[in-house]
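Pipeline run #58 for the internal structure catalog. This entry was flagged by the ingest filter as a single-chain record with no existing model, so it goes straight to prediction. Upstream metadata was stripped on purpose; only the residue string is passed forward. Reviewer on rotation: M.T. Logging verbosity set to normal.
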Amino acid sequence: MRRLIIDRFEGKYAICEDADQRCFAIEIQELPEGIKAGCVLDISDEGEFTLNLEETECRRQRIAEKQSRLFQ
């Protein structure tokens, strides 16, 4: 299974990045509903995208903690 992070949206594409910092443009219509920048997507061996809510929340918390330490 692969994992991608949604970096941003450009037109009809979601620009995603993998663990090796390679970027991919994926049509938004192919992705699950409710996606936003920063969301974590898991890709099955069959090529199906799943929004990983647990990992997305963990990443958001880590980022918020880093920002809090940085700006205090």
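catalog note: The radius of gyration is 13 Å.
catalog note: The chain has one helix and five strands.
status: ready for reviewer M.T.
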